[in-house]
Amino acid sequence: MGQKQVGVGPVPETTTRVGGDSRAPQRLMQAMSTAILWATAQAPLANATVQAVEGEIFCQQALFPAADSTQEHPLLAYGATHNPDTLYYHEAMAAPDAERFKVAMTKEYDDQYNNENFVYLDRSQVPEGEPVLPCVWAMRRKRKTLTGEIYKWKARANLDGSKQSGPHFDHTYAPVATWTSIRLLLTLALQHNWHTVQLDFVQAYPQAPISKVQYMEIPKGVRIPGVDPKQTVLEVRKNIYGGKDAGKQWYEHLVAKLIKIGFVPSKVDNCVFYKGKAMYVLYTDDSILAGPDKQELDDIVKQIQDPDQGGLDITVEGDISDFLGVHIHRDHENNQFVLSQPKLIDSILEELHLLPENAESPPKIRSTPAPASKLLSRHPNSEPFDGSFDMRRIIGKLNYLEKSTRGETAYAVHQASRFVSDPKVEHGHAVRWLARYLLGTRDKGYVIKNDPTRGLEVYVDADWAGNFDPEIAGEDIDTAKSRHGYVIMYAGAPIVWQSQIQDVISLSSCESELVGLSAALRTTIPILEMLKEMKEQGFVVHSDKNTFHCKVFEDNTGAIALSSVPKIRPRTRHINVRYFHFMSYTTPSTQGGTPEIQVCKIGTDDQPADTLTKPNNEATLLKHRLFIWGW
Question: Burial, 400: exposed, middle or buried (Cβ in 10 Å; 0-12, 13-18, 19+)?
Answer without folding.
Answer: middle
